[in-house]
Design goal:
The complex is a heterodimer of chains A (about 220) and B (about 120). Chain A is α/β, with parallel strands linked by helices. Helices cover about 40% and strands about 20% of the residues of chain A. Chain A has one domain: Rossmann fold (3-Layer(aba) Sandwich), CATH 3.40.50.300. Chain B is α+β, with helices and mostly antiparallel strands and about 120 residues long. Classes of the chains: A alpha/beta (about 220), B alpha+beta (about 120).
Chain lengths: ~220, ~120
């Protein structure tokens, strides 16, 4: 046996050059599966869950976080504070909650008000995170303005981004479209619902978010 | 005159006008115009940071019965080439179209064209 086993060497290199702890924000537009993914990560690594999920947009209207989630990759590991953020949107129409999802006027208005506050909270969290797991719906057009804006913002801050191309369990999904749309960032196709390819996601998270980077704040 | 009869105002905003304004002045100008029911086509567009600030300011201004937010589509900054980086060339963001979300809807966007439509039955406020 050599002086350093492969795992030990990786751990030493990580200690010298990389992060051991990172605050990771789960970002994306509403209804792409951010909380489903947060629940998947927590269930796999802590046995806990982050929050409730719903087909009605803006189910998560306040950021939730779990500290010190240890995610392993072979001989190395990374402690992460996982922040599940409310979906970012450019508009919030309470009538959509009434007409499409059958909420009462009062419920819809309350949800809409909380959703606008949630968007603001998500944006403010960008000041306080070390990296982003950007969740996109692989069944939808990836060039939405929210996706483009979030990515541009993170690039301007030099924050590491990992794109989770979610919902690949659905027939109409096209993770290849996402990969070709954003070639400058790693894209991992996953199904947060079924857990498909989550091992690959965790491996990529540890590698990608462990890297030592200088943050550029604006 | 009824609102619908007044038509819809689509304003093309020049690069010079935008360059005269600071970032916060620009966002204030855009949001005020859009809240007044105008659609703006910005020759220069907004940076990603400005777009994020505009989303935040928009959320603060939402009034559920009169202003539900904005529709915004644009192109991000072109990435400078290696040579351009050395020469210090700064790439500006490209065109952006912004309007009230209850008036303007994006149909399709690719690298060369942003296709939008006015939501039927809506007029200038």
């Amino acid at each position: 046996m050599g002086l350093f086993r492969k795992g030990s060497l990786a751990a030493i290199i990580q200690r010298i050059f990389g992060k051991k702890h990172a605050k990771i924000g789960i970002y994306g537009p509403p209804n792409v599966g951010k909380t489903t993914l947060a629940n998947r990560i927590l269930r796999d690594w802590t046995g806990d869950i982050m929050g409730s999920v719903s087909e009605i947009p803006h189910e998560t209207r306040e950021a939730k976080w779990k500290k010190n989630v240890r995610i392993e990759n072979g001989g190395s590991s990374l402690f992460m504070d996982i922040v599940d953020t409310p979906g970012i949107a450019t508009k919030v129409d309470f009538k959509e909650f009434m007409n499409t999802y059958g909420l009462s006027r009062e419920e819809a208005k309350k949800r809409a008000k909380e959703a606008t506050e949630g968007v603001i909270e998500s944006i403010r969290w960008l000041e306080d995170i070390d990296g982003v797991l950007l969740v996109m719906d692989s069944t939808q057009d990836p060039f939405t303005q929210v996706n483009v804006t979030i990515l541009g913002n993170l690039e301007a801050r030099s924050l590491p981004v990992l794109i989770a191309a979610n919902k690949i369990d659905m027939d109409e999904s096209s993770p290849a479209t996402l990969k070709s749309a954003f070639p400058q960032h790693p894209v991992v196709p996953i199904s947060a619902l079924t857990g498909y390819n989550s091992d690959n996601l965790y491996t990529t998270m540890v590698k990608h978010f462990s890297r030592k980077r200088l943050k550029k704040r604006r | 005159m009824a609102d619908k009869e007044r038509g819809i105002s689509v304003n093309l905003v020049s690069r010079q006008k935008l360059e005269e304004l600071s970032s916060s002045e620009k966002l204030k100008f855009i949001l005020k115009e859009v809240q007044n029911g105008k659609i703006l086509v910005l020759e220069h567009g907004l940076t990603a940071m400005e777009q994020t600030n505009l989303i935040e300011k928009t959320m603060k201004e939402i009034k559920q019965d009169t202003f539900i937010g904005i529709e915004m589509e644009g192109y991000s900054e072109d990435r400078p080439s290696f040579i351009q980086k050395i020469l210090g060339v700064i790439k500006k963001p490209r065109m952006t179209v912004i309007g009230p979300a209850d008036l303007l809807k994006t149909i399709r966007k690719d690298s060369n064209m942003i296709q939008t439509m006015i939501i039927p039955g809506k007029g200038a406020k």
